[in-house]
Amino acid sequence: DEQNSNEREIEITNITKEGCDRAESSQFELLQTLGAGSFGKVFLVRKIVGPDTGTLYAMKVLNKASLKVRDRQRTKMERDILAHMSHPFIVKLHYAYQTQGKVYLVLDFLRGGDLFTRLSKEVMFTERDVQFYLAELALALDHLHSLGIVYRDLKPENILLDSDGHIALTDFGLSKESIPTQDSKTFSFCGTVEYMAPEIVSRKGHSHVADWWSFGVLAFEMLTGHLPFHGATRKDTMNMILKAKLAMPTYPSAEAQSLLRMLFKRNPANRLGSGPDGFRNIQKHPFFASIDWDKLYKKEIEPPFIPPIHNDYGYYFDKEFTCKTPTDSPGIPPSADAYNTFQGFSYIAPDLIHARQQDPAYANEVERRLRSINGVKTTPFKDEYELKEALGRGKTSTCYRCIHKQTNVEYAVKIIKDVHTNDPSDEIELLFFYRQLTHIVRIRDAFYNAPIAYIVTELMRGGELFDKICQEKSLSERESAKIMYVIIKTIEQLHRNSIVHRDLQPRNIMYLDKSRRPSSLRIVDFGFAKQQRAENGLLMTPCFTKEYAAPEVLSRKKYNESCDIWSLGVLLYTLLSGNTPFAVDRNDSHELILARTSLKLQFTGPTWDRVTYNAKALVSAMLDVDPQKRPTALELCKHPWFSNIDSLPNVKLATIQDYNRVRHNLDATFNAINANSNKTLALGPIGDSNLFKRRTERTLHQQKLEKVK
Hints:
Blueprint: E1 28-36, E2 40-47, E3 56-63, H1 69-83, E4 93-98, E5 102-108, H2 115-122, H3 127-146, E6 159-161, E7 167-169, H4 198-201, H5 209-224, H6 234-243, H7 254-263, H8 278-283, H9 293-297, H10 319-322, H11 338-341, H12 353-357, H13 360-372, E8 376-377, H14 381-384, E9 385-393, E10 397-404, E11 410-416, H15 425-433, E12 443-449, E13 452-458, E14 463-464, H16 465-472, H17 477-496, E15 499-500, E16 509-511, E17 521-523, E18 530-531, H18 551-554, H19 562-577, H20 590-597, H21 606-609, H22 613-622, H23 633-637, H24 659-667, H25 690-708
Parallel strand pairs: 8-12
Antiparallel strand pairs: 1-2, 2-3, 3-5, 4-5, 6-7, 9-10, 10-11, 11-13, 12-13, 14-16, 15-18, 16-17
């Protein structure tokens, strides 16, 4: 408790978003439960009236009866702090209101979940990740401190990620206002004990400098995967914070170790971040040497991790809460039932996919998914476009040329005849979400005219990559390198966002225009593309083109984005040699292909004699039968072969002698095990991580202490 504080009732006044009517519960539709505690719950809600209709928010609902006067004071403080806060890395409050029994705070909904969830999955981050998150967090803390606010509850659970991967600090329930200088002190004993500064533990009084100790704890945890001071009991932890020597691992860089040691000064006056130039000293620390702070503040630096999009908005939140029906709060519409509450969380095994497709409930779910995607139109496709000749046909779809009636501009349209057996919602959502990537085919429109879906994209006038190979008869090593660099760089952007294409072949790599320059390359057809959603990031659904399928895909083992690297290796081999490395026909069994892929590659003959060592080494690495040994897309971008492309030999290599045979091998497509098998993936439990188990133990310990009190 604060020294010399008197308990009194605090009125929670209303906050209303500018341009909107005063909020009340009837204006919000409750969708999911995102969290719950002893005082209340946090819901995902959708605004159903007013100018912000359709906007998703996080609604924090507190039961007045459960709040002690001190807690009401803190709720009022949180409301006041957030109402006057405007910062790119701090969550924004949009509404605050109350009823006779409850208090409501309506905040930004940040669909990326909290940093704890990501840390639980990754155990520890790369230093580049840590540098980025800490830098954004430091800007948020400095803003609070400049306003005389001490945050006091810094931990991964209170750092959220927005849809672009930027952080936002949330939960100001323990914050303290009106601490204008380092010499001004407050004496509350509050926070999460593992993150408390020594001056809070010892109750000697603390200022905003205590937040920089917590900042150091968070940095240590992200760099190493464990806490710097963590005892068997709460008391042991507190003693370690006050007295224990910091056990510094050897693997963090010298700059990282220096940052941690300067933050873990038990004397606040000596701690990095103290003094009138405290924040500037943090900015100048060598660990942040590569950060452009102005660009960072403007969100012009790309985050290291962009949360993959998911149809279930609560996907990145704790399943313990999201699987519960949002109840015990006003505002639940009569139609909100368990089915809607659990949408998007079911796991369906591959052998049950066919049965599910025959289920009317599944058909309704596919329609609901399509209608929920921002950008999908339900008006007739033919009202806006005139359909022309077919450009290509596949098993589940046909591509046509079409003309936009109003502008007379030509486009391509992919028509999926029955969405109930071939759900295109993932593909459409991915195309809309990543339309800003230069070398991804750009979606223009999408329509759902039951049961048909139309995906309208830019028209590839330059044809397929293989058409260029046919036209040129052969390519030089320099030309091949320029093509591959554009493709690999694009795949790296997808992999960075946890997207696996799973069907990379020349047919799905096209040219936007007839110049057929590398700059006009586009990756198309995301029908097999998949967001990695399991705890371990592994995919299990087999879907591929067999000449390009990696061994682990053919053998139906678990696989990840390294299967794309294999496909690119086959492509590079073909560009350089004029042949596929594992020549097959449509009648070859998976076992025969798998046996061939396990053989060591041979770079023999006059063509390979003219290929540089770096190129052959790159092909060998990409076609390693062990997916763990293959380079990542990021590592490929940094490979020596790409370091000076213009110096590579520009002499034409092998001429394709049998165009039809090579084309036949490239086009031999394997049919996926199930009609819709690429939509299935098991969700791995966050609870398997050591970090989560440790947090659970801590929570149980704290609950026991509360019962004793």
